[in-house]
């Protein structure tokens, strides 16, 4: 196969991996999230968490418990591939609505994922992910309003299997990559 074609296919597989991460995080789908990392992968969220990715995923239910809304949006993706190893700098806008003592607060983070990927057994997965925050906006109380008349009757997204997407898709199965 032409080297450029293989590189394009590898970049697409990695891009799909990045998007699957966002979906799994937003839906609190820890089974799917676990499948995106190699067993020996590491994750570095700064002083919040740094260590084995599987240990981080084990903590996710507690970390995400106060998060009423998670919404990751990937923008710029830069990927370099060298055989079965690749690196990526992925820009992300991540919105969080968090339950706090005083009600709810909004946190919008503009940042980047600094990733290392490895292709093992013909499948690309994360081998390391570092989170970099470039800016953040915190608003308390929350400015999110899902009860406005303009959204009345809308299907409202939510974490977990009660999200409308779980019952809708046949091909984009939840809980798997």
From TrEMBL:
Coiled coil: none
Pfam families listed in its UniProt record: SnoaL_4
Source superkingdom: Bacteria
Domain SnoaL-like: from-to ranges: 6-130
InterPro entries listed in its UniProt record: NTF2-like_dom_sf, SnoaL-like
CDD domains assigned: NTF2_like
Name recorded for this polypeptide: Nuclear transport factor 2 family protein
Taxonomic lineage from the root: Bacteria, Pseudomonadati, Pseudomonadota, Gammaproteobacteria, Cellvibrionales
